[in-house]
Amino acid sequence: MADVSLSDLGSSSNPLSGLDASDYGGFGSGGNISGSFGDPGSLSMGSAGALGLGALGLGAVIGMGPSPLPAQYGQLQGQVPWLQSTGQGLVGQGQGLESQGQQALGMAQRGELTPEQSAQLKQYSTGLNNQSRQMWASMGRNPDQDTAFLSQTANVDAQVNAMAQQQIQTTIQLGLGEMSGGNSLISQGLGFENAANQILLQAGQAQMQADKSYSDSLTSAFGAIAKMAGAFL
Looking at residue 41, what is its pLDDT? Predict the structure, then answer.
C-alpha cells in the first residue's frame, strides 16, 4: 500500500477532501495513514515465502526418514544366525563331554570298571591262570591238589588287581580329559554367541543413533518453522 498524505486527501480532486489526521483515529502520523492494520495484514509475502521454505525443508526431512545403517552392519548381521547356531552346537557338545567326564570320575571314585575294562581284565586274569596251570602241569604236578599252587593263585590275583588300578587311573585321566575338552568347547561356543550378541548390540546402538539424529532433525525443522511464524505474525 502506498503512503497517502493529508495534502493529497485535501485536494479538490479527492472525495475525502477536508479530512485531517484526527479523523483517522490516530492511525499514522503527520498525515501518513500507511502502516500495520492488525495481524492478518502484517503477514507479508516475504513471511509466507519463508514459511513455505520451512515447510518444504520439513517435508524433505520427513520424506528422507531415518538414515539407513552402513552396509557393513547388514553383512555382519547376516552372520548372526550362523554364529548363534555354531555357538549353541559347541556348547551342547561341551556339556555332553562334561557329563561323560563326571560319570567317568564317579565310576573311578567307586572303583568301578567300564564294560570294556572288565572284559579286558577278565581276559588278562584267565591268561595268567592258564599259564600257571600249564607251568604246574609241566612239572608233573596237579594244581588243584597242590597247596603250593595257592601262592601262585595269590600272585595272579595281585597282578590282576594292579591291572585294575591301572584301568581306574585310565578312567580318571579319561574323565579329566573329557571335562577339560567340554569346558573348552563351551568356552568356544560362548565366544561365538558373544560375537553374535555384540553384532546385534552394535547394530542396535547405531540404529538408535540414526533414529535420534532423525528425531533431532524433525525437532529442528519444527523449531525453525515456529520461530519464523512467530517473527512474522
Answer: 40
